[in-house]
Amino acid sequence: xxxxxxxxxxxxxxxxxxxxxxxxxxxxxxxxxxxxxxxxxxxxxxxxxxxxxxxxxxxxxxxxxxxxxxxxxxxxxxxxxxxxxxxxxxxxxxxxxxxxxxxxxxxxxxxxxxxxxxxxxxxxxxxxxxxxxxxxxxxxxxxxxxxxxxxxxxxxxxxxxxxxxxxxxxxxxxxxxxxxxxxxxxxxxxxxxxxxxxxxxxxxxxxxxxxxxxxxxxxxxxxxxxxxxxxxxxxxxxxxxxxxxxxxxxxxxxxxxxxxxxxxxxxxxxxxx
Length: 273
Description:
Blueprint lengths: L1 H12 L1 H20 L3 H32 L4 H4 L3 H11 L10 H12 L2 H4 L1 H39 L4 H4 L2 H11 L5 H9 L5 H42 L3 H27 L2
């Protein structure tokens, strides 16, 4: 069993294996794309269905190989988030009644294309970075909403009588300021506002400095910091996977043996002399 575990682990970690899986994922994506053309689907629908089933079979074999590569240990296999994702996405094709629902079936097939993040390390880093940045991005989003509300209220006070198209109420005002985050229409906004009041210049200039420049720079800083953390996590994960799988299995056996010995010692001590 240890020899099979080492062989499967080496195969699952090899570049050739991952590039082969990448090719299957791209083939699966091509099939999904071709099925959107009615003429092609009508003429070659059976062949496309066969290719899709072959891709599904290869994905199942891949999961089996990766499962055996961790010593056929469900706890270790499902401790990795990507393994859970693979199992759910591929296993969805075998859910009873799914094949009778064309929409759900296509969605399940489409999710298998997302597995491309699994086999490309750089994409994995971006996914991890996005996940780690969500709490900070959520806080930044709340801060942005407060800024938009404040400037929306000030804009309503200044412009709602003469520019109801953009500042009729707080909703329209906040929408106008949100669009203004791009700074694309800043000159037009300033020109239109100056025709109403001279307060338009400090209003829009301060908004550009605070909302556009400051908030966007904060967002960029969050993303860069998350990318650095994600690269460190991915590096640690790859170093852990590079360990000899046979050694990992042996270490688990040793820990299990120690646990059994400890239980025996406690039983002996409980019985007394």
